[in-house]
């Protein structure tokens, strides 16, 4: 983003009697004459308010965004902030079961990443039935039914057009996104993946059926899942790439 405020800072507010609160802030070089604080709603995050910073930030106005306690993760960058990952369901995911999506969701959660779920139309886009039988699917079903936060995440997905790659360290698409570089629809999985790749961000896709002509992976990294169950390898590769990319960008800004 471009503004007269200094670079964005990320930190945690510690409370002895409650959860840690993740905060993004912009501080002017001189003493501020005003401070604006925004507390977002459920299943939202501070990145959705960057436009307000661009429009209103001034040399003497500071900004603070405390994140919801539900948006916390254990997978940290060197700045102490969690890795934020966009997890999307492609509109062409009819052949992908709910348990496969939850397999990715929980693999990211268990690795400590902060996950924001998106779909083409928003809301709850998944069928309620599990299509894959077996002990692992049964365990996912039990975990999902007992997990209020996961049910809320899947019931309140954001639309693709509401997301911007600068809010995330990487992304994971479940389902076939189609033609990455030839989809004119802004609110599509393909267009969102192309936005991530063009910005040099890593993206994982499961299954790996997609059209990457004519630009390939662009400036980013495209990780193709092999359909293995559970999808732990693809998730581990994505988080490792996102961490490395973040550190490279941080070091380049410091020099």
Outline the structure in words.
- This protein is of the alpha/beta class and 255 residues long.
- Helix content is 28%, strand content 21%.
- The protein has helices at 50-56, 98-110, 135-145, 148-155, 189-198, 232-254, and strands at 9-13, 21-26, 34-37, 61-66, 84-89, 114-119, 158-159, 170-174, 178-179, 202-206, 210-211, 221-224.
- A 6-stranded parallel beta sheet has the order 7-6-5-8-10-12, sandwiched between helices.
- α2 crosses α3 and α2 packs across α6 (232-254).
- It is globular.
- The two termini are 19 Å apart.
- Mean pLDDT is 76; it is low at 1-5 and 68-80.
The end-to-end distance, rounded to whole angstroms, is: 19 Å
Instruction: Report the strand count.
Output: 12
| SSE sequence, one letter per element | EEEHEEHEHHEEEHEEEH
* Helix-residue proportion: 25-40%
Tally of DSSP helical segments = 6
Which term fits the overall shape?
globular
* Quaternary organisation: single chain
Secondary structure class reads: alpha/beta
Q: What is the percentage of strand-forming residues?
A: 15-25%
Low-pLDDT regions: 1-5, 68-80
Compute the CA-based radius of gyration: 19 Å
Q: Strand order within the widest sheet?
A: 7-6-5-8-10-12
Largest sheet: 6 strands, parallel
Average residue-wise pLDDT: 76
Q: What keyword list fits this structure?
A:
6-stranded parallel sheet; 12 strands; 28% helix; disordered N terminus; 255 residues; alpha/beta; single chain; 4-stranded mixed sheet
Please render the helix and strand layout as text:
Blueprint: E1 9-13, E2 21-26, E3 34-37, H1 50-56, E4 61-66, E5 84-89, H2 98-110, E6 114-119, H3 135-145, H4 148-155, E7 158-159, E8 170-174, E9 178-179, H5 189-198, E10 202-206, E11 210-211, E12 221-224, H6 232-254
Parallel strand pairs: 3-4, 5-6, 5-8, 6-7, 8-10, 9-11, 10-12
Antiparallel strand pairs: 1-2, 2-4
Helix pairs in contact: 2-3, 2-6
């Amino acid at each position: 983003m471009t503004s007269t405020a200094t670079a964005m800072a990320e930190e945690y507010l510690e409370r002895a009697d409650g959860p840690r609160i993740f905060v993004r802030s912009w501080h002017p070089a001189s003493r501020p004459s005003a401070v604006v604080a925004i507390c977002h709603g459920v299943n939202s995050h501070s990145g959705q308010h960057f436009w307000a910073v661009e429009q209103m930030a001034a040399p003497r106005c500071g900004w603070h965004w405390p994140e919801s306690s539900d948006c916390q993760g254990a997978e940290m960058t060197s700045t102490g902030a969690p890795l934020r990952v966009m997890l999307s369901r492609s509109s062409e995911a009819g052949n992908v079961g709910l348990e496969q999506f939850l397999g990715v969701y929980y693999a990211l959660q268990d690795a400590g990443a902060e996950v924001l779920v998106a779909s083409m139309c928003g809301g709850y886009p998944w069928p309620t039935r599990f299509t894959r039988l077996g002990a692992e699917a049964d365990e996912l079903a039990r975990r999902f039914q007992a997990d209020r936060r996961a049910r809320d995440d899947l019931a309140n997905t954001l639309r693709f057009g509401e997301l911007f790659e600068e809010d995330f360290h990487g992304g994971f698409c479940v389902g076939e996104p189609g033609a990455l570089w030839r989809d004119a629809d802004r609110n599509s999985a393909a267009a969102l993946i192309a936005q991530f790749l063009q910005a040099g961000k890593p993206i994982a896709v499961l299954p790996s059926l997609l059209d990457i002509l004519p630009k390939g992976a662009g400036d980013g990294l495209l990780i193709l899942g092999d359909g293995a169950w559970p999808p732990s390898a693809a998730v581990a590769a994505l988080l490792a790439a996102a961490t490395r990319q973040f550190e490279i960008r941080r070091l380049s800004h410091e020099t």
